[in-house]
Amino acid sequence: MRYFLFLTLLLSLSINILAQSRRVNPNVRTPANPAIAEIKNLTVEEMFTEANTYAKLKFAEFERKKIPYTENLYKYTLLEQKQLAAKYAAALSTRQNLAGADFYFLGMLNWLAENSEKASDAFQKFLATENPAVEKAQTARSVIVVVSARQKKFDEAEKLLAEYLKTEPIKLSERARMESELAKNYQEEKTFDRAGAHAEEAFRATKAVFKDSSSRARGLNELLDAGVTLFEIYKEGGKQKETENALEDLRKTAVQVESTALYYVALDENIKYLIETNRKPLALQMYSNALSQATKDFTPKPLQEDILRRLKKREKQYKLLGETAPEFVSINRWLPGEVKTLTNLRGRVVLLDFWATWCAPCLDAFPSLTEWHQTFQKDGLEILGITRFYGEAEGFKVDNAAEIDFLTRFKKANRLPYDFVVAKDVTNQQTYGATGIPTTVLIDRKGVIRYIETGSSTGREEEIREMIVKLLAEK
Fold first, then answer.
1. Residues 432, 354: contact at Cβ < 8 Å?
2. Does 54 have pLDDT greater than 60?
3. What are the distances in angstroms from CA 228 to CA 8, 29, 212, 225, 294?
4. Could you give the C-alpha distances from 33 to 30, 37, 40, 319, in angstroms and in order?
5. Overall average pLDDT of the 16-21 stretch
6. Where are the alpha helices (DSSP H) in 21-95?
7. Does pLDDT of 295 surpass 90?
8. Which structural domains are found in the chain, ordered by start?
9. How high is the pLDDT of residue 38?
10. Helix (H/G/I), strand (E/B), else coil: 98
11. Is 437 exposed, middle or buried (CB count within 10 Å of its CB: 0-12, 13-18, 19+)?
12. Cα within 13 Å of Cα(423), Cβ side
């Protein structure tokens, strides 16, 4: 109901804004379609300005009217902005008299509407005009570089990037975006030397931009993305020293910007990388050292407590990585009923999903788990949903028999094709360090634990899928 009210309000607001954005001369006869006349009366620059400031003005209006922030409200407003930009760009495509800076603003409208190829075409026309404004030309080049990189037109992208870097002004935010896009697309092509060089520049520019970022949250996300991209490129390229240097750079950057989230990611990835490359004693030593180093790196007590909490939750899982998976204990029931052991499952890749019926993120993972079962079971994937007795079902206190009956019905209702394993107590969760749920454990064909992570998200599910594919490829 609340979401419906927001939609209704947003629709009415958007209509009012479009209707009131320009005043109509009362002496002029009202045309048959005022909306079309409205667009015709706008210059190209006015269209871009209105579309570009749309979300900012709406958010300011929501704040004045004390409309609470929600994720849906945020997404819907950005969608409206994109639709407005697309509408104006489409209208401009019918005009015959575009010239000079008009092509720049048309390109910006298409870029805002996420019509990247049309944006690139418009910007190329702008650059071909006589004496284009230098700053606008730099922005136009930066967008064409990004689009060309995505299209894997690397020669074109590199040439325009070189032109950009020879010209002033150079905006570090634009450079970071270009270098990052080139790095990621070279990475996709397995051209790791070029990817690494661009990723280094992207991270360097992103660190410089952070100092002037208007949004700390966005700035930290960009730092994390740039730092992790650099690490992953060197890791995939087999450059061990550079991989570790990238993570150490990210850790030091985290200290400078006082971010425990970045600090934890840098340490966590470094510890896992050491284990993955058969240096587990060094990994555990790094973990031990980090517990004391963190209190030196962060002076504020809350920051110290946060990073120590994050690290200590991972201790058990670090110790398990690279080790033979422990067998289950205290199992009450297998659903549908065939008892299995991890020893008997050797030769298959096993995914353990620690979950509960009351855990919303656990339920969000069901579609992915089902898809993985259907796609990879024939290749050797075995999924086991590990839960335990909680003494509740459908909001009522129940005994074990009633809870088993509920789980049986739950499995059928959600069409989950893999086996459930119902434990008597929390022992298995403690053994696997699954203190939070959902926790995913991946065991390779030799029975060795290769992956343990807690949480559910689109990014996490993509990561798990990639690891499944990697482990299935190992023979």
1. yes
2. yes
3. 41, 60, 21, 5, 20
4. 8, 7, 11, 70
5. 32
6. 34-40, 44-64, 71-92
7. yes
8. 103-320 (1.25.40), 331-473 (3.40.30.10)
9. 62
10. coil
11. buried
12. 19
Mean of pLDDT values over 206-219:
88
**For 378-418, how does the pLDDT look when each residue is reduced to its tens digit (9 = 90+)?**
999 999 999 999 999 988 999 999 999 999 999 999 999 99
Concatenating the DSSP letter of every residue in 353-393 gives EE--TT-HHHHHTHHHHHHHHHHHGGGTEEEEEEEE--SEE
Whether the upstream peptide bond of residue 336 has omega within 30° of 0, thus cis, is yes
Q: Distance between CA 315 and CA 294 in Å, rounded?
A: 15
Bond from prior residue into 417 cis (ω within 30 degrees of 0): no
Residue the block writes with tokens 């190329």: 124
Q: Classify each residue of 326-352 as buried b or exposed e, where b means 16 or more C-beta atoms within 10 Å of its C-beta.
A: eebeebebebeeeeeebeebbebbbbb
Torsion of CA 136, 85, 458, 463, to 10 degrees: -30
Tokens of 95: 């005009």
Cα–Cα distance, 222 to 202 (Å, whole number): 10
- Three-state DSSP class for 158? helix
Evaluate if residue 8 carries a pLDDT over 70. Answer: no
Angle at which helices 280-297 and 301-320 cross, to 10°:
170
Tell me, what's the pLDDT at 214? 77
Residue 320's identity, in one-letter code, is: L
Sign (positive/negative) of CA torsion 166, 171, 173, 177? Answer: negative
> At 96, is the pLDDT very low, low, confident or very high (cuts 50, 70, 90)?
confident
**Type of residue found at 152:** K
Assess contact for 112 and 81: CB atoms under 8 A.
Answer: yes
Mean pLDDT across the stretch 37-54? 86
- DSSP H helical segments within 151-239, as ranges? 154-166, 172-188, 192-210, 216-236
Please compute the mean of the pLDDT values over residues 104-109 and round it to a whole number.
Answer: 96
What proportion of the chain, given as a percentage, has pLDDT over 70?
A: 92
Cα–Cα distances (Å) from 420 to 296, 354, 473, in that order, read: 45, 10, 26
Measured in degrees and rounded to the nearest 5, phi and psi for residue 180 equal: -65, -45
Q: What pLDDT shows up at residue 212? A: 81
The pLDDT of residue 249 is above 80: yes
Name the phi and psi angles at 432, rounded to 5. -95, 5
Calpha distance 436→392 (Å, rounded): 18
